[in-house]
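sry for the spam today, last one i promise. struct tokens for design, 455 residues
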């Protein structure tokens, strides 16, 4: 078992990992930038090391500084969390070459699955449905236009590396293709240092469903059922729920079977998530695999009772899974709201600054994952998500009602937040009925009454 773990991350995920390690008897080392010297994870960990200036490229993305911090503090493992270097195969390989344990899959798997074009090829080999698209990386605008015509507009230009909507452009006609192609390549280069792009047929307003998986180094793979991540704004998830309320049993079975089959084929040996798009006819298509813990993992923990972070650390240590598929049962419903410091009236612009007053909700079935506190100064250098608010109840409607109450109790003063945005979603009839898809938010924003209810 890992004895001393460095967490190469910040914010609520660093706190989440530290908590799991404390329960497992693992010593923790936090790393922090100069902007995060007063951050909560710095004081929660057993030790803390500054790894550079505020700019992420000089701190949380600085591989050498992180490795040096791990080695100098006597760590035997590094947990990358999510974001930053969590899906960087170069970093995973460097960790392995320094005789440290990388809490995630091996670098070859990260590299293969991080290349979206290669991941699609692997899925096609074993018969997992993929979204129709180009079989190779696009070499030119002309080649892209030709393939787009063959696929039929609209199409998506997508970055071969990375994710989170970066390097992605929707193109509805030939006239806009060249501009979108060049923009996608530039954004992909800036975000991932890789400007390769490919094409996919655009599926109008599907459901975005992901399957949570855990594999070990002994060939065992289990699933923890699915999450509905269809509520998105600009390809960024806003609210997630588990399980998917409207997914038919036969579609669920197909999704899960394909996800498990893919993991066994790949020899996947960590926590991971396979994401699918499900169209209005119930057809499902592989989209991508995330080789890390997901932001929304708590809702799966709530409905299955499995501590995903602990399992991730266990399998990274080389231990066999201590749970079997027949042990996994779904109980009730869980919803997660991503609370961001952003100004919804100003096109959701980030709203860094000092929190002058904070009151957190509580009660049975309410879980808060955060690293902010009263008088905390939210820095402008990182992601605007400052909290994850999670509720659990035996039924979906009870879970929705519990989340509404939790949002009413949540008070954050000093900065703008999206609390009202979530509260409004939870009162929308389409959401309550589960009849929403990836196009829901775009329409919802147009109708939002900013002057009603919470602010």
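last one done:
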């Amino acid at each position: 078992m890992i004895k001393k773990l460095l967490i190469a991350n910040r914010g609520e995920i660093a706190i989440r990992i530290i908590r799991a390690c404390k329960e497992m008897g693992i010593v923790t080392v936090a790393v922090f930038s100069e902007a995060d010297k007063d951050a909560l994870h710095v004081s929660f960990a057993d030790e803390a090391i500054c790894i550079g200036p505020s700019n992420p490229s000089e701190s949380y993305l600085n591989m050498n500084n992180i490795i040096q911090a791990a080695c100098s503090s006597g760590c035997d493992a590094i947990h990358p969390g999510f974001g930053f270097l969590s899906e960087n195969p170069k970093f995973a390989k460097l960790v392995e070459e320094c005789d440290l344990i990388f809490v995630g899959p091996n670098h070859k798997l990260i590299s293969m699955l991080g290349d979206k074009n290669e991941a699609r090829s692997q899925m096609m080999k074993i018969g997992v449905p993929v979204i129709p698209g180009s079989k190779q990386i696009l070499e030119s605008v002309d080649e892209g236009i030709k393939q787009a015509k063959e696929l039929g507009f609209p199409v998506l230009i997508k970055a071969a590396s990375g994710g989170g909507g970066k390097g992605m452009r929707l193109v509805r006609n030939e006239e806009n293709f060249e501009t979108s192609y060049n923009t996608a390549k530039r954004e992909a280069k800036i975000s991932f240092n890789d400007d390769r792009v490919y094409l996919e047929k655009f599926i109008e307003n599907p459901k975005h469903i992901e399957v949570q998986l855990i594999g070990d180094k002994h060939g065992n793979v289990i699933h923890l059922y699915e999450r509905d991540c269809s509520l998105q704004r600009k390809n960024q998830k806003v609210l997630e729920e588990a399980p998917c309320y409207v997914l038919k049993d036969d579609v669920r079975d197909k999704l899960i079977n394909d996800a498990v089959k893919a993991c066994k084929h790949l020899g996947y040996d960590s926590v991971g998530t396979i994401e699918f798009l499900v169209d209005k006819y119930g057809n499902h298509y592989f989209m991508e695999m995330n080789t890390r813990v997901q932001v929304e993992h708590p809702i799966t923990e709530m409905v299955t009772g499995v501590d995903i972070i602990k399992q991730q650390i266990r399998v990274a240590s080389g231990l066999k899974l201590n749970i079997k598929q027949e042990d996994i049962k779904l109980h009730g419903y869980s919803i997660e709201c991503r609370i961001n410091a952003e100004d919804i009236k100003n096109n959701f612009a980030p709203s860094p600054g000092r929190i002058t007053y904070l009151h957190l909700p509580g009660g049975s079935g309410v879980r808060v994952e955060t690293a902010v506190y009263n008088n905390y100064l939210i820095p402008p250098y990182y992601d605007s998500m400052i909290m994850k608010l999670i509720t659990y109840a035996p039924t979906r409607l009870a879970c929705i009602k519990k989340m509404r109450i939790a949002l009413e109790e949540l008070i954050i003063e000093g900065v703008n937040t999206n609390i009202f945005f979530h509260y409004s979603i939870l009162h929308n009839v389409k959401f309550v009925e589960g009849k929403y898809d990836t196009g829901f938010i775009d329409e919802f924003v147009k109708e939002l009454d900013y002057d009603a209810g919470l602010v």
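The mean pLDDT is 95. ok im logging off now
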